[in-house]
Write a structure and sequence with these properties.
By secondary structure, this protein is of the alpha+beta class. The protein is built from 3 helices and 7 strands; from the N terminus they run ββαββαββαβ.
């Protein structure tokens, strides 16, 4: 069986799958393949992809409901990233083209604003190299890295 999706060349180091052109997958199970393709194609109707990025550089991709509150987002990220101490979440707005700095906006810890409202109000910019579905970057501040509890430094 052959794959029937197109690879878009974004740059020499990265290939992006164009999900608009997925016709079938290679599992051999047409029902399963159809459901996966339908799920991927309908994600943008009710969900966002968020790339959750720690300030150390580690990142993780999550799918969240647009209508979830920012409080729900804090809870979901806490569970997904195994982080009990989130000091803040920051939405990526844009990269300053003059000095390369990032414009970010702290996301309030509130149940009174949806993720969709925050994205729209603050004009978050999707990650440029991803065409569809739309992926937004959210930075997580989980504080300074704590020393390992099993290290030799505290045992005398």
């Amino acid at each position: 069986m052959e794959y029937s999706f197109n690879i878009n060349k974004v740059d020499r180091n990265r290939d992006i799958i164009n999900i608009n052109s997925i016709k079938k997958l290679d599992s051999g199970d047409k029902y399963y393949d159809d459901k996966i393709v339908e799920y991927i194609n309908n994600l943008s109707d009710s969900k966002y992809f968020l790339e959750i990025t720690k300030f150390c550089g580690y990142s993780h991709l999550m799918v969240v409901y647009k209508e979830d509150s920012l409080l729900d987002l804090y809870i979901d990220i806490s569970k997904q990233m195994w982080c009990n101490k989130i000091l803040g979440l920051f939405g990526f707005i844009r990269k300053n083209r003059y000095d390369g700095t990032l414009d970010i906006k702290k996301m309030p810890l509130t149940a009174n604003m949806s993720i969709k409202e925050f994205v729209r109000k603050n004009k978050l910019t999707p990650i440029e190299s991803i065409q569809r579905p739309c992926v937004f970057r959210v930075f997580i501040d989980d504080g300074p890295k704590e020393p390992d509890s099993d290290s030799d430094s505290d045992s005398d």
